[in-house]
Amino acid sequence: GSTYSSKVFRVTFLTLAVSVAVPLLGVTILLDCPIDPQPISLKEPPLLTGVLEPNTKLRKAERLWENQLVGPESIVNIGDVLFTGTADGKIIKIEDGEIKTIARIGHGPCGGFEDEPTCGRPLGMRVGPNNTLFVADAYYGLCEVDPDTGEIKPLVSTKTLIEGQKLSFVNDLTVTRDGRKIYFTDSSSKWQRKDYLFLVMEGTDDGRHLLEYDTVTKEVKVLMVGLRFPNGVQLSPAEDFVLVQETTMARIRRYYVSGLMKGGADMFVENMPGLPDNIRLSSSGGYWVAMAAVRPNPGFSLLDFLSEKPWIKKMIFKLLSLQTVMKFVPKYSLVVELSETGSYKRSFHDPSGVTVAYVSEAHEHNGHLYLGSFSSPFIGRLDLQHV
């Protein structure tokens, strides 16, 4: 009887498998895939040991202004007044605990992914020497905002052709102390911010990496091309180089803007334990790096698994929406501090993203680390004396 039942089982199983596989195959052949993924070679992720050893230090962060703002991507301060840009296109000011909208680069309606291109999405933000705000808006470009009046002065528009191409996804910026030069990233020449997951999964190197805007001559120069999702940027304390996070490749490049190496580039940190988003100075002379996603080792890293299997990526995106795929990205939160030479000094983790999920930036001010996130409805604050 057992051989008969196992035969029945085999036949039933095969019939089921075929009845599922054939339509699925038909669907996947016929359906268009929004992306044309490229195979990427990533090294095995670094082991999470030593200073990278998992902990729960990020869970000590307090949630400030919860449900009063959404997606505070980048955070700056002028004195004790905080400024950030939110998912609904606003630039807001937080003074004495009070939230006030000071500007909006785009126009409504705002709220959904589909509204972003007209609404605008302020990403990187910096304070210039005259205490004005420099903002990188993903859809509108670079502008300067008066923090008192909210007046917006466009600097580099995404409609302007730069070396024959428009900017598609303006992401982050860093400003020299004298305010003369702004270095900024354009993450892709194909995808916009609302499709950032397509950009990560496609793995193409169409980012026009690093651009330089001269506020005096109004000239824009392309300094570097061919990066896979160039993201956060930070000038070194001596202003001799700019660090650029290459998100898809889990690494940081260094481009020299002055000195003997001027115009040259090299690798600053390779094979990081996560996908780096924004990078900011730390008070120790090093850098804070926020990870948009983590590459667990030991553990399973979906990104690494898919990196050399474009056909699986195609299947996924033929069948599932961006929002659905996002649900499979583990909510592991990680912030690392690098030394001035790029070695790891310490790391703060929240392995299940309980307190702060998807940290986009860690901004240090007065002994605290302010944590931005492209999706959280609050700003996290971690007391550096007590972690």
Automatic annotation (TrEMBL):
Listed transmembrane segments: 12-31
MF term (GO), any: arylesterase activity
UniProtKB keywords: Glycoprotein, Membrane, Transmembrane, Transmembrane helix
Localization annotation: Membrane
Gene Ontology CC: one annotated term: membrane
Membrane topology, as annotated: Single-pass membrane protein
Stored InterPro entries: 6-blade_b-propeller_TolB-like (IPR011042), Strictosidine_synth_cons-reg (IPR018119)
Superkingdom of the source species: Eukaryota
Domain spans labelled Strictosidine synthase conserved region: 171-259
Protein name: Adipocyte plasma membrane-associated protein
Record organism: Rhadina sibilatrix
Protein's gene: Apmap
